[in-house]
Amino acid sequence: xxxxxxxxxxxxxxxxxxxxxxxxxxxxxIWQQNVISHNGVIxxxxxxxxxxxxxxxxxxELDRYLLANIAFLVAAATATGAFNVFLTTxxxxxxxxxxxxxxxxxxxxxxxxxxxxxxxxxxxxx
Length: 126
Known about the structure:
- This protein is mainly α.
- The chain has one domain.
- It is 85% helix and 0% strand.
- The chain is built from 4 helices and no strands.
- It has helices spanning 3-30, 38-55, 62-87, 91-125.
- The radius of gyration is 17 Å and the shape is globular.
């Protein structure tokens, strides 16, 4: 298979992994049944995040991807405290939002770590 075709297929897998990861994060944030243990969901989200980081991010997108991840992770850490304040007012909504945000963090953090490690390797190699 030509290199261009392999790159196109890898990009498609990366996009699918991103969409599936977000859907899993949201669905299991709302539907908190023990169909799959919470640890299982986190493991799947982490794996999909790594797949996205490896297959979806090209060199030209690296800075934007890492900046967006850092911004989201900082906002999520800050929002967790805001959800706790909101919890006293609207407990049901806050519980879902905080779980969804935690799931998305579990999804994007491994991808950001992989991309950052790849960039650190490239920079130190030069």
